[in-house]
Fold:
Amino acid sequence: MNNKNIFLGIIAFALFSCSPGGGDSVTATTDGGGETGGNTGGTAQPVPTKILTELFTSTTCGPCTAQNNTLNKYLDPTSSTYAGDIADKWIILRYHVWWPSAGDPYYDWNQNPVHQREGYYREGTSNYVPHAYTQGMTDSGSGASTWRVHARQIDTTTAISPFDIQMNVALDGYELSGTITVTAAGDVRNLGFKYYIAVTHDDSQYAAPNGQTVFHQTFIDFLNSETNGGITAWGESLNLDAGETHSTNIDWTLNNTWPNNSGVTWSPNDLNIIAFVQFDGGGETDKKIFQVEEIDFGS
Structure:
């Protein structure tokens, strides 16, 4: 049996066997424990998965304001529309883009990875904002209510994962340091999986042209990449045997001038670090995210 068939068997098992200014130093970890095959002698031990919504937005997009604000309320425990059933496992990553007008400071700061990620989903077709993708495989369109519906569907249909991500990362002022590991319950060598590490920011204040004033989960940068044929791509290929763990050391410092706009106020204490595993071998219609984890230092 080839590696792909072995791994698909593990997935089937998973589906049917379980119903500005420096801040203080903060070290945070995700839940630990012997959850995957890597800790139990190589046997398949799927673990709970979280949900990732990737949202393309802009400070120059009028309709983005209402949808971003509605999404914020879904994640706010004090809101009457708080999505309490999924909020603690629903992770958001908001990429700011270069249309409908120029001048978004969050996009201007670091353009190349946004171009690459936007093109990865768009695949040559026209795009628009706001525009969300859920778990890499569902085009969730432009409405926050649909984003919530699709996140709940993911929680119901793919509630467990053959990948386990663990984080032990410290924030000291503008610097992130520590270790992130990902362990596979099955053999995933040469199957097309990629592993991404990203940094985002919560609660920056900016009087944007579209009327939005508070910005959460704002993409800043990817921390890992690989070069193939002279071309650098963010993320890295994930090739692991059953029970094997890939470890990444984090040593990254945010430039204290981010996002290079005097109208934006923010604190480094509100940084987040995200890691996710995505299938990258199935063409434009199969880009499923199999696992995602986050540390929110500001919470």
Observations:
- Residues 79 and 89 are 17 Å apart (CA to CA).
- The first strand starts at residue 26 and ends at 29.
- The mean pLDDT is 88.
- Residues 3-17 form the longest helix (15 residues).
